[in-house]
Specification:
- The chain is mainly alpha-helical.
- The chain contains ten helices and three strands, in the order ααααβββαααααα.
- The longest helix is centred in the N-terminal third of the chain and has 21 residues.
- It is globular, with a radius of gyration of 19 Å.
- The protein starts with 5 loop residues before the first helix and ends with a helix.
Length: about 220
């Protein structure tokens, strides 16, 4: 059996294919397309459609701003939002906890959670949406399936003229990671936000950002 060391593990990670990711600018184009439908629904007084389009807008915005897996984002409720600290508590569905022996407490959460910061605008939009439509603290904000989520991205991504290879929920997660690293967020922090078990899993994104290495070098004082 070969000897697996941290060096060989890192080499294996970096030899992986670079993931397809969506950019911040492309996400904005998709959001602009949804905003057009929001404005139309407002003009025509279509209240039900307005709620649907607002929810779609928040979903797409959340996918990119949180770096969440689609199943994680679909599971959040208003109780996951910390309005004061401007964070969202995301369930890390890939890292489950062991159930305690004996009777399981009512408040037991079967998976680990991570805290991800959010912008003032995204927090305000989420809270406003929940208040406008009476979303209860334990009620899902995005009550639709993974397939419906995929269709939303495909529909508005095509309208925005985005490369179809990028129109997948996971491309938003990859885009979040690349965007953060390019904006000087430390790799270990990005790891924490993504909920990766090891920072080695996050290292793959440095292959994409290698073009920025010269900028880092220029900031070093010699």
């Amino acid at each position: 059996m070969p000897n697996i060391t941290p060096t060989t593990t890192l080499s294996m990670v970096l030899s992986q294919k670079v993931p397809i990711y969506i950019t911040n600018e492309e996400v904005k184009l998709i959001l602009e397309e949804i905003k057009k439908d929001i404005d139309k629904a407002k003009t025509k007084g279509q209240k039900k459609k307005l709620q649907t389009y607002r929810r779609m807008y928040l979903f797409v915005e959340g996918l990119f701003q949180l770096g969440a897996r689609v199943s994680e984002l679909l599971s959040i409720t208003p109780s996951h939002i910390n309005r004061l600290e401007k964070t969202i508590r995301l369930p890390n569905l890939k890292r489950r906890k062991k159930r305690p022996q004996g009777r399981t407490p009512k408040d037991f959460v079967p998976y680990q959670e991570r805290i991800v910061p959010i912008t003032d605008k995204f927090r305000a939009d989420l809270v406003e949406y929940c208040l406008d439509y009476g979303i209860r603290p334990d009620q899902k904000i995005f009550p639709f399936s993974r397939i419906q989520a995929f269709k939303i991205i495909r529909k508005y991504g095509k309208k925005a003229g985005i490369d179809e290879r990028k129109l997948h929920p996971h491309a938003f997660r990859h885009g979040f990671a690349v965007h953060c690293i390019r904006n000087r967020v430390p790799l270990t922090v990005v790891q924490e936000w993504l909920g990766h078990y090891s920072v080695l899993n996050t290292t793959i994104y440095t292959k994409i950002t290698q073009i920025d290495n010269r900028d880092f070098f220029e900031q070093v004082e010699w």
